[in-house]
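Sample entry (447 residues):
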Amino acid sequence: MFYPLSAFIAYRYAKSNKASQTSFVSFINRFSVAGIALGLMALIIVVSVMNGLEGQLKQRILGIVPHIEVTKTPIISESEIRKTPIISENPSRTSNENAITETPTQTAEKTQAVTLKEISETPIEGVVATMAYREAEAVVQSRSDLRGVQVHGVQPEVMIEHTLVANHMEQGRFSDLTEGSFAAIIGRSLAIKLEARVGDRLRVMVAGASVYTPFGRMPSQRLVTVVGVFDMGSQMDDKVMYMNLKDVNRLMRDPKGSEQSLRLFLNDAFNYQAVVSALTDRVGVSVNNMKTWRERQGPLFDAVKMEKNMMTLMLLLIIAVAAFNIVSALVMVVTEKQGDIAVLQTQGMLPSSVMWIFVLNGLFNGIKGAGIGLVLGVVITLQLNNILDLIGSPLALAADGRGLPIEMDVVQIVGIALLSLLLCVLASVYPARKAMKIAPSQALQNE
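Predicted structure, serialized as tokens:
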């Protein structure tokens, strides 16, 4: 049973000065508190930076790659009853009097295609916008180089409103992608490799829309004019070219756009699974007719997540080592205070109350270490870029090029601090149980 007396004694001992403890026990106590503080501080800093880097990847890469793409072949199944005529013959009647009846004999499947327009008009939680879309693999040729790219046929007005690419234009704007102009917007990295500038003309060749000529099979090709350059600072900058959807359809020799798909913009790309489930359950779209960003960039984000988890685990082990230093300190305290424990028991204190004294002592040490580490971690994280500038090691990894990207998650930080306290409590259980098992008669014989 827990008594307030246990908390009072534990608190008095935890805040006692060095003179009331042996120097060695006091050193181990302070060392464990410092270890918890340093470990928690390092964990807060590392997790905040990793969150920022993950957010930058999410912004730079998933700002270009379609979140979800739905092709034109979703199916909804309906059932209809097929009626088969059955002739009932009665020997007593003539052939003209034979009765003809209809009875349901079989259930047949009737399929009905769902149009992309119907899907786009269906409200789905998490989807902020939809857009007719087409993507094709192509080769782009300039005067100096040849590169393979992905040509994205888009609707400029939707891109301006719902994509980050439109906010990272170095030159030009998406409104320049007018229908019939065969204009293109390319990434800064691709422009450097092709030595292309705004106003230059590039030859785009699409093998998927080749035609047979007297000279053999020739890919569909067209000269396009560069009207804009974007810079997302991602690995996709040299792999994507934006064109008007109508122009891409003509390039693919499909002016009616019968093979174009539907692109879905999500408010949170990581929440794609819920949208996929809604499309399959409510709309009836087959999973085989959907493409998500996971198919292209899933391994990259999995690697970042694994690295983040491993760094967190490593720093948690450092906190655990510091927390378990509390075991050494409390075991020595129990050995040193056997007589005092025996006196308390002879005065009526229960063994469970004695155990709670040492559990709470370890908890108070953990609170001191976690409090110091929490304050230092938050302060250093907020001033990390200034500190890096001060020591002459600035890192320009943020989107604006002004240092490390930092994203502090309050829930995550509170969870880490509570986990540190839990480790301190667990480390205090063994010495507390050892103190509880002290026999007053044997302890007082040695006094």
